[in-house]
Amino acid sequence: MTLQAITWKPVKIDYNILSGSVDGLIGIQECTDYSLQNIKKGSKRRSISDEGMQIKKKKTSRSRNKKNNILLEKESLTPSTCGTTNGVSEVEETIHKVEKDLTNLESWNSYGLPESILAGLKELKFCQPTLIQSLTLPSAILGRRNILGAAETGSGKTLAFGLPILTGILNIKEKSINETVPQDQSDSDESDFDNAEENGMGCVRIINNVDIEETHRNKPLYALILTPTRELAMQVKAHLAAVAKYTGIQIAVVVGGMAAVKQERILSKGPEIVVATPGRLWELIQQGNPHLSQIDNIKYLAIDETDRMLERGHFQELHDLLDRINMEDSKRKERQYFVFSATLTLVHELPNYLKNKRKIKRSKNIEEMDASQKLQKIVDMLGISNPKVVDVTEGKGTSETLTECRITCDIDKKDYYVYYFLKKHPGRTLIFCNSIGCVKRLAALLSILDCHPLPIHASMQQRQRLKNLERFRDNENSILVATDVAARGLDIPHVEHVLHYQTPRTSEGYVHRSGRTARASRQGITVLLIEPNELPNYLKLCRTLGKGEDLPNFPVQENLLNAVKKRVNLARELDKLQLHVRKANSEAGWFQKAAEDMDILVDDFSSKDDTDEIQKHKKIAELKRKQLATLLATPIFPSGFSGKYPLLSNSKLSFDGNIKVENAVEVMKSAMEADNKNKKKNIPLFKPKKKVSKNESGNVGLKKISFNLGKKKNTKVRGKKK
Ligand SMILES: Nc1ncnc2c1ncn2[C@@H]1O[C@H](COP(=O)(O)OP(=O)(O)OP(=O)(O)O)[C@@H](O)[C@H]1O
């Protein structure tokens, strides 16, 4: 078979992207018109995989000649579909659609992606690469460079390393088939396949169990992708599997919290790619899992959220794994590495207590680093040589479409603001807390308030974690209350709001938490709830992320807070009573069990007072529950209330039909616009006042709190411990 090129056109690309990556490269040209001569049946190029074969054959003919392809589509139309609708022929419509599809895929053409992958991208309707993908794919695929990539959250980093890995594996497999199958045999196989198709026959292969086991035992492991959380591992697997649908490449997940036996069974099938969290993977390797025993042979290693994975004191298993994988220098040099995170190049100042020279001397390893030093450290740790660095974060890591703001209040008023926000601005909302205890408390409170929150934290059973994520995905008004276990990487479509119930401890934490919204060019809002003790951390965060002095204040309609407080206060009381009852019950249960163990009659020891106490609590709780139920049955914000902020065009009627709810992003944007117009300054962070007002009906913001940075004595505000 020969390919006769008739027209070549230069492809416009940014050659900086390829600089140093492909030796001797002077340009890339595209063959825009060509013919096939002496076509022998079958082409070696089709050997991507058994599963991908049929698709590949169709796509190959389609993309080789656009005109032929359109004709082919025309011919396949039955006479009944060739009519004219609204003056436009359906044939023309089809041609237009096919042309559009092909045009769409052309954006991916210059990266050397196999057609089976293009088919996957097309099915996902990914018409063109994102910025980070277009900047990394040429060097990664054509230049086989190691990549250090930093791009904002939700910008498509998974495919920036996923596509080169899938492409590389297909190329290796194709090469090995070409090397092992003799020319004649390969041709005759192809002929058989083609003949079978032409004759309308299927291609049948009989495989028995022994063959399957033998095949799996010999299957190589090509790539390992490591993630910090189980949920992220599963998501990455699902994402890559969707793109790899027509490639025949198998991908497995290895994570903790799931039956090890099941994971061993999956591994026994010999997946080419393993996506894993370090702990369980290391455990299985140490147990001598046969498929994982080739871990040092992998050709591709990707570490997602690398900065988190390599953090001091985290993932000791990762270091063990790296030692094992990089055992042989020659294999390490052959391997391609991908290191990605939104905060890979984010640097920040040392905490104040470490700035003290004496202390720094004691902890020698802790020092302030700039971005290149940080990257160098990662490169050294992973043993990577000559990496290509692509950083498009401009030092912030958050998306352009993210609206950022804050609400400042006293610690015990945070619950009011959270409930206010949820009622006033319904939509899929993720609330982050700094501890498991805080998640539990807030979820219990919101549950009493009928908000149906879904908690997620590390001490929950894995199955429950996944179930709650699933429910969060399925309901557009759902609320997820999470620790930072949900902060990194999770790609849940249409998360509208992220609330930081507590200020994140690090700037990285803020970037990743906030990045759960405003993904893939969608709009989203992130709101920090700040209490006085969190101010130093908040200000540091603003400095590190270049936010200037302060974030804008989220507008709250003060006249609506009274109704909010009534409900929240009642819910808090109810929560407290329920806690007493639960505690007393569990103590009674323990007492009874101990008595039974000692063969003692429980009645003899039961304390009547305790029972009365429980009974009393139960009665009061019942009363409060009824009161709250009555309140919750009436609209929280009565119809026709006069709001400070005009209702916006995209306001929608709430589920109870009485109140208008507003899009939080729009509310914030118009408030910012109004402030800009009036040259109004943001509500000051520090407005010293002698006393904290007892009147809670007004703005519970900073106007009433004495903040005095630097004077530690005054910054403490008594409140409920979270
Ligand atoms: N080329 C593309 N065209 C359209 N959508 C895309 C493309 N590439 C990825 N996406 C989609 O964009 C979303 C975000 O992608 P991804 O999860 O890879 O982001 P990320 O940069 O890894 O985010 P994070 O930093 O939060 O982990 C996903 O829903 C993904 O399916």
TrEMBL record:
Gene3D superfamilies documented for this protein: P-loop containing nucleotide triphosphate hydrolases
Domain of life: Eukaryota
KW Metal-binding (keyword) present: no
Annotated PROSITE patterns: HELICASE_ATP_BIND_1, HELICASE_CTER, Q_MOTIF
Enzyme Commission number(s) from the entry: 3.6.4.13
Keywords: ATP-binding, Helicase, Hydrolase, Nucleotide-binding, RNA-binding
Catalytic activity: ATP + H2O = ADP + phosphate + H(+)
Domain Helicase C-terminal: 412-562
Residues annotated as domain DEAD-box RNA helicase Q: 106-134
Domain Helicase ATP-binding: 138-362
Region annotated Disordered, chain positions: 45-68, 679-698
InterPro entries: DEAD/DEAH_box_helicase_dom (IPR011545), Helicase_ATP-bd (IPR014001), Helicase_C-like (IPR001650), P-loop_NTPase (IPR027417), RNA_helicase_DEAD_Q_motif (IPR014014)
Chain intervals with Basic residues compositional bias: 55-67, 679-692
Motif (Q motif) on chain: 106-134
GO molecular function: ATP binding; hydrolase activity; RNA binding; RNA helicase activity
Description of its domains: The Q motif is unique to and characteristic of the DEAD box family of RNA helicases and controls ATP binding and hydrolysis.
Similarity field: Belongs to the DEAD box helicase family.
The protein's role, per its UniProt record: RNA helicase.
Listed name of the protein: ATP-dependent RNA helicase
Native source species: Phaedon cochleariae
